[in-house]
Amino acid sequence: MKRIVLHTLSEYSDDRGNSISYEASIEVKSLSFCGSNNMLVVHRDAKVKSLEVTFDCDNGYLEIGPC
Q: What is the pTM of this model?
């Protein structure tokens, strides 16, 4: 399966059902999708210095909320 690697955080969706929904500005080291139907949600008040995430599964969900 093709691996999709992103280095900037922006609204995103692809034909495999992976998506990103965000409201905060976060530095992204690496964000990759290897599976299908994965979702990353970043809330407006989230406080993260740097983010590195790999979804190497199907139906994964990661939500980063306010501190």
A: 0.80
